[in-house]
C-alpha cells in the first residue's frame, strides 16, 4: 500500500475502533444500573434503569454503528480508487476524531457541540465519497 492510501486504511481502522470504544461509557452506565447476569438475556430491557447519561451513552453507541456503515464504504472507495486528494486525506483523519468527540459530547449532554461533531463527521464521509467517485470516474 502506498503512503498516500494509508490514511484511508487508518481511517477505516480508527472508525471501527471508535465503535468498539463506544462500549466503554455504555458498560459504565450498565454497571451503575446494577447490571446482573440475568440481564444478559435481554440487555436492552434494562434501558429504563440506566441513568440519563447512560441512556445517552446507549444512543451514542447505536449512532456509532450508523456512522460506521456510512464511512466504511467511503474509505474503501478511496482505497480502491487510489485517491490522493489532500482534502480526502484530511477528511479521512478528521472523521474518527470527530466521532470520538461526538461520544463525549453526547454522553456529556452538550447538544450544540454534539451536533457539530456529527455534521462534521458526516461531511468528512461525504467528501470521501465525492473524491472517491471523482477518482474512479477520472474527473
UniProtKB/TrEMBL annotation:
Pfam families: MAPEG (PF01124). The keyword Transmembrane applies. The chain crosses the membrane at residues 6-28, 74-93. This is MAPEG family protein. InterPro entries: MAPEG-like_dom_sf (IPR023352), Membr-assoc_MAPEG (IPR001129). Keywords: Membrane, Transmembrane, Transmembrane helix. GO terms for cellular component: membrane. It is found in: Membrane. It comes from Cyanobium usitatum str. Tous.
Amino acid at each position: 500500500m502506498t503512503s498516500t492510501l494509508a490514511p484511508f486504511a487508518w481511517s477505516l481502522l480508527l472508525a471501527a475502533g471508535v465503535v468498539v470504544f463506544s462500549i466503554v461509557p455504555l458498560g459504565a452506565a450498565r454497571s451503575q444500573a446494577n447490571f446482573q447476569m440475568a440481564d444478559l438475556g435481554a440487555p436492552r430491557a434494562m434501558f429504563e434503569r440506566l441513568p440519563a447519561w447512560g441512556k445517552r451513552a446507549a444512543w451514542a453507541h447505536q449512532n456509532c454503528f450508523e456512522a460506521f456503515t456510512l464511512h466504511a464504504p467511503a474509505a474503501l472507495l478511496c482505497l480502491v480508487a487510489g485517491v490522493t486528494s489532500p482534502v480526502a486525506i484530511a477528511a479521512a483523519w478528521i472523521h474518527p476524531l470527530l466521532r470520538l468527540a461526538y461520544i463525549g459530547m453526547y454522553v456529556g449532554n452538550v447538544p450544540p457541540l454534539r451536533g457539530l461533531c456529527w455534521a462534521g463527521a458526516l461531511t468528512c464521509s461525504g467528501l470521501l465519497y465525492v473524491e472517491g467517485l471523482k477518482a474512479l470516474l477520472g474527473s
